[in-house]
Amino acid sequence: HAKRAGRNRFFQFDAASEREAQQVLAHTALLHLALTQNQFELYLQPKVDMRLGTVIGAEALVRWNHPDKGLLFPGSFLPQMHGTALESIFGAWVVDTALDMVMVLHNRGLVVPISVNIAAPHLQQANFADWLAQRMACHPQLPRGSLRIEITETAALYNLEPVAHTLLRLRDMGVSTALDDFGTGYSSLTYLRRLPLETIKIDQSFVRGMQDDAGDLAIVQGVIGLARSFDYRVIAEGVETVAQGSMLLQMGCDLAQGYCIARPMPLEDFVHWMEHWQAPLPWQQATAALSS
Ligand code: C2E
Ligand code: MG
Ligand code: MG
Ligand code: MG
């Protein structure tokens, strides 16, 4: 009797996972269709130097212009791609689209390096660096250093060695790497030690909490210090208020990204925004105070 129950359980589990597999397939098919129908769009969010008042780059963030549901954010559809074949097909679209955008900006006299987020399995493909070199070679006029990547700590979780090797090759190609969401993943310090990074991004959760929470503040200060020790650039994510920016400036973090500077926006809006942006007065004053 026990045996039969066991077998039943096994059968039920199997049916459930088959349903789940079918659902994943259906989602993936839908997402692939959306991709072929040009429903995805890359928005750009500026990265600025608060001290100098300059735009140092932009991060490409995907949006889905869904025909019925409107504008969808990556949190609602990227997880469904995770681990499927679509992940690298989508990743290729992101890279190609970002390269096109770099060229559009370049042709208008705007030098703006664009950072793309690369999913772990895509980065971990053995030929990732060669593949990226090929994509870049499609744009012979591409300015060196105009494509950057962002990876999260989970991206290299198993086996840092091949990832470090890939990142070194990217560096040779002029593609620098930022470690995204720093402090929220695993083995942060090992990553800093073993990966050839250029930039660390302070996760927005710490920036959000730093004014009220001594622990978050300590982490922000710690990451800024770590970045300095390792000779990495550090950029704060999720800077939502001018006051947060001023505080970061005081702590020695000049680079920032966040809603108080600009939200992610379509390419045309970004071009327009670039023509008009000025650092908020308190940042200019903080800078003047620092240098006097
Ligand atoms: P991320 O790379 O850490 O991107 C930062 C996220 O914070 C973005 O959310 C951005 O819109 C949001 N953000 C920026 N400034 C602020 C702020 O001041 N306040 C708040 N509350 N949020 C801010 P988004 O666009 O929803 O993207 C979420 C995540 O999805 C990204 O996190 C990234 O991991 C992933 N993602 C987005 N686009 C792509 C892509 O093209 N490829 C891959 N593989 N992942 C992507
Ligand atoms: Mg990112
Ligand atoms: Mg982040
Ligand atoms: Mg994130």
Outline the fold blueprint.
Layout: H1 2-36, E1 40-49, E2 54-66, E3 70-72, H2 78-81, H3 86-107, E4 114-117, H4 120-123, H5 128-137, E5 147-152, H6 160-172, E6 176-182, H7 188-194, E7 199-202, H8 204-209, H9 214-230, E8 233-236, H10 242-251, E9 255-256, H11 267-276, H12 281-291
Parallel strand pairs: 2-4, 4-5, 5-6, 6-7, 7-8, 8-9
Antiparallel strand pairs: 1-2, 1-9, 2-3
The structure holds ligand C2E and magnesium ion (MG) (3 copies).
Organism: Giesbergeria anulus
Domain EAL: 24-278
Protein name: PAS domain S-box-containing protein/diguanylate cyclase (GGDEF) domain-containing protein
Strand arrangement across the biggest beta sheet? 1-2-4-5-6-7-8-9
Spans with pLDDT under 50 lasting ≥5 residues? 1-8
Count of β-strands: 9
Through-space gap between termini: 84 Å
Outline the biggest β-sheet: 8 strands, mixed, barrel
Bound molecules: ligand C2E, magnesium ion
Average pLDDT reading: 91
| Residues in helix, % | 40-55%
* Shape call: globular
The radius of gyration over CA amounts to 21 Å
Structural class: alpha/beta
Strand content: 15-25%
The helix/strand series, from N terminus to C terminus, equals HEEEHHEHHEHEHEHHEHEHH
- Number of helices, where a helix is a run of at least 4 consecutive DSSP H or I residues: 12
